[in-house]
Amino acid sequence: MALRIFPAPRQRQVTLCALRSFAHVSSFLGMARQHLGGELTAFEAMWNEYYRLTVERVNGVVAPLPTHYPFYVLLDASGNKADRLHADLEKLLKTALGENIILDATLSTSEASAGAMWRIRDCTRELGRTFPYTSRIGFDVSLPVDRMDEYAKTIGARIKAIDARAFTIVCGARR
Predict the structure, then answer these.
(1) Which ranges carry the FAD-binding oxidoreductase/transferase type 4 C-terminal domain (predicted)?
(2) Could you say which residues of the chain have pLDDT below 50?
């Protein structure tokens, strides 16, 4: 048996995008796969409630985009050729903006700005701690991408049927 080990990618680009619907999130995932191929290393979807509440309630989190958009996507791309990676990502964003798939976007300019964007997605526990213990219940489920939106809407409606003041906070990943 032979094992070939590839070097870790030397370059990384992170972008945060705003979208109007989950259908646009799915379309953007397809575009990202097409434009970036194996350089697409993470694709994280955040519903408005997650993004908005995280930047409002978690200390030290800064909103790189306004909090009024329905969906957000955190996209991470890695490769060994910085110029090509940056150009591919810029082409993806330009195409997605031109086709009205995304509404707004910001691209990391440093490891610090990339880390700040990832901090929004990575502080689910910190966000949960900002609510009284008796009012939070967490679930981690796996679903095909094409079933995520329906699932989130169904759970949200069922929670509201139990208590009109209750709400759901949803985010999802495709890596």
Answers:
(1) 9-165
(2) 175
Identity at 76, one-letter amino acid code: D
Name the one residue in this structure whose structure tokens are 């997650």: 50
Distance of CA 127 to the CA centre of its chain: 16
* Domains (range + CATH), the chain: 11-174 (3.30.70.2190)
pTM: 0.85
Tokens of 30: 């397809």
pLDDT at 148: 84
pLDDT recorded at residue 145: 80
Kindly report, residue by residue over 121-146, the tens digit of the pLDDT: 998 888 888 887 656 666 677 777 88
